[in-house]
Amino acid sequence: MKKSIFLFLFLCSIIFVSAQNKFELKIKGEVKTPYSITLADLAKMPQATAVLNDKDGKVHTYSGVQLSELLAKADAPAGKEIHGENLLKYLLVKSADNYEVVFSLAEIDSSLNDKKIILADKMDGKALDAKKGPLRLVVEGEKRPARSSFQVTELVVTSAKE
Fold first, then answer.
1. What 8-state DSSP symbol labels residue 9?
2. What's the pLDDT tens digit per position in 86-130?
3. Measured torsion, CA atoms of residues 31, 35, 37, 43, in degrees rounded to the nearest 10
4. If exposure means fewest CB atoms within 10 Å of the residue's CB, which of 38, 40, 68, 104 is most exposed?
């Protein structure tokens, strides 16, 4: 009995690791260079940290890649390009459970805003668990973590202009 339970847990961990290795985040929409990126590629990018309180008020430190870095790699409008019609552009963040949140590009851009927004793969130095990962959007400084989405799968730049 113990051997079968161990075998089951072992197989589950292999499946989880395999799924993590196949995971790709998609960055697409109104960008010049849409792309997909793996967890291994994200780990090679410059890392940042952000602090977030959970629902119980416990403070956690997350680490990952700044959202602006991922959008820059896709050549999304940034810096001096954020004016005129580009002020109508926004980022739609999609999660595996169909949860979606929105940020204006101006809100993400470091030339216009000091808000720290990262796509984290670690919490308190450890990989995110399956319920929250492999990637979690973390928005530091918001009073409620409503936009700090779990299981992020896609970043889509689009426009509010019809």
1. H
2. 999 999 999 999 999 999 999 999 888 888 999 999 999 999 998
3. -50
4. 40
Other CB atoms within 10 A of residue 94 CB? 17
Q: What is the pLDDT of residues 45-96, one digit of tens each?
A: 999 999 998 877 889 999 999 999 999 999 999 999 999 999 999 999 999 9
Model pTM? 0.83
CA angle 54, 56, 91 (to 5 degrees): 25
Tell me how far apart the alpha carbons of residues 133 and 13 are, in angstroms, rounded to a whole number: 14
What 3-state DSSP class applies to 140? coil
Q: Can you read off the two tokens belonging to residue 123?
A: 């919490």
DSSP-based three-state secondary structure for 4: helix
Distances (CA, A) of 81 to 87, 89, 133: 9, 11, 32
Nearest to 64, CA basis, from 52, 79, 75: 52
- Domains, the chain: 24-159 (3.90.420.10)
Residue 43, token pair as written in the block: 């780990």
Cis peptide before 145 (omega within 30 of 0): no
